[in-house]
Amino acid sequence: MRKLILLLVILLMTGCVSNSVISQFSSLEDLEGKPTLILFAATYCEICQNVMPSYREEIYLEYGESINFWINVVDNKRFRTDIPQGLNTKLDFEDLTEMKCNFVPSWV
User: Fold this and answer.
1) Deepest in the core among 17, 23, 49, 75, taking most CB within 10 A?
2) Residue 54: which residues within 8 A CB-CB, separation 6 or more?
3) Cβ–Cβ contacts within 10 Å for residue 36, how many?
4) Distance from CA of residue 37 to its chain's centroid?
5) pLDDT (tens digit per residue) in 90-100
6) CA atoms of 108 and 96, how far apart (whole Å)
7) What is the dihedral of CA 8, 13, 16, 20, to 10 degrees?
8) In whole angstroms, what is the distance from residue 30 CA to residue 68 CA?
């Protein structure tokens, strides 16, 4: 229960920071009672760039039907609104950043 409350607080705080949100979820009811994983990534963060492909391959493709995924991409210390914020099978790190990433961390 505490994790759910923390998740909702983070989700609500995220909505307060950004003027507009582009997402596959329009309200909390759209989350359908499934667990939700919220990822924060920055286009200028090398670690974020390196792990995003592994999140997609190792987590999203495996659990995408049973868990809601929400990704917030930050650029220049503010939320970007010109790219979709929901992670889906047609959107990956290279689509988000237009950068090529060939590195998978050894701890994944």
Assistant:
1) 49
2) 104, 105, 108
3) 18
4) 8
5) 555 666 666 66
6) 21
7) -70
8) 10
- Please give the model's pTM, rounded to 2 decimal places: 0.41
Most confident listed range (31-35, 51-55, 96-100): 51-55
Q: Mean pLDDT over residues 17-25, rounded? A: 50
Which two structure tokens, joined as six digits, stand for 52? 């995003």
Q: What is the pLDDT at residue 17?
A: 45
> Which residues lie below 8 Å from residue 51, measured CB to CB, with a gap of 6+?
105, 108
**pLDDT value of residue 50:** 81
In SS3 terms, 30-79 reads as HHCCCCEEEEEEECCCHHHHHHHHHHHHHHHHHHCCCCEEEEEEEECCEE
